[in-house]
Amino acid sequence: MKNKRVSESRVEIAQIMYPEHANPAGNVHGGHILKLVDQAAAIAGARHTHHNVVTASVDRMDFISPVYIGNLVFAKASINYTGRTSMEIGVRVEAECLRTGIHTHVGSAYLTFVALDDNDKPVEIPQIIPESEEQKR
What stretches in the chain show pLDDT beneath 50? Predict the structure, then answer.
């Protein structure tokens, strides 16, 4: 099994927030943001392992900035750590107001995913190769 660089599985997804994502005051539901976090992490995990991956845990997510209808939301995910069958994936969420161009940090989370084989049993995964001092830290 070949080890992989962090950049090989990094992913960034973006989605415009519409009224169906928000409450009557125009604030996007936290659950919708968490769904984007989980999706971005799952994509990064699948890219890294080339297997089905499932969420084992999500650490706390503090919302430090609100997201509004019309914002473009980014979920940026990368592998932080790999074990034998599991991996920690970090996701940073940012929002961009398309009218002003202002970017805000919405929050960050760390998720643990497990890779599964065709029989839904944990499978050994490639280890990561950090490429920068920040990734090594």
Answer: none
**pLDDT at res. 129:** 87
CA-CA distance, 45 to 68, in Å (whole number)? 28
Q: CA-CA distance, 112 to 45, in Å (whole number)?
A: 10
Beta strands per DSSP E along 1-47:
4-5, 11-16
CA distance to 11, 49, 51, 52, 133, per residue, from 107 (Å)? 17, 26, 28, 26, 22
Q: 136, 13 in Cβ contact below 8 A?
A: no
In contact, 127 and 5? CB cutoff 8 Å: no
The total of structural domains in the chain comes to: 1
Structure tokens at 84: 């034998």
- Which helix (DSSP H) or strand (DSSP E) does residue 32 occupy? helix 30-49
Domain range for 56: 4-136
**CATH code for the domain of 118:** 3.10.129.10
